[in-house]
Task: inverse folding
């Protein structure tokens, strides 16, 4: 999947605030289907892996690694 201008689907990430069901920030981006047809469950699994990596690798390093493999 690629981040896209046209909407094929949308991923929304919410940051929870101090109270239950109160979200301080909501970010979303659209995705465009590509030849590698990931399901939403596969996409979620990738997101969990990358999130876990953030405890071991700093953001800028992780971003550089992913950009290196993406080009």
Result:
């Amino acid at each position: 999947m690629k981040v896209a201008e046209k909407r094929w689907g949308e991923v929304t990430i919410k940051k929870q605030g101090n109270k239950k069901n109160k979200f301080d920030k909501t970010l979303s981006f659209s995705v465009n289907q590509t030849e590698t047809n990931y399901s939403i469950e596969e996409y979620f699994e990738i997101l969990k892996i990358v999130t876990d990596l953030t405890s071991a690798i700093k953001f800028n390093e992780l971003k550089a690694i992913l950009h290196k493999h993406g080009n």
The longest strand covers residues 23-32. Helices lie at 40-53, 59-70. The radius of gyration is 14 Å. The mean pLDDT is 77.
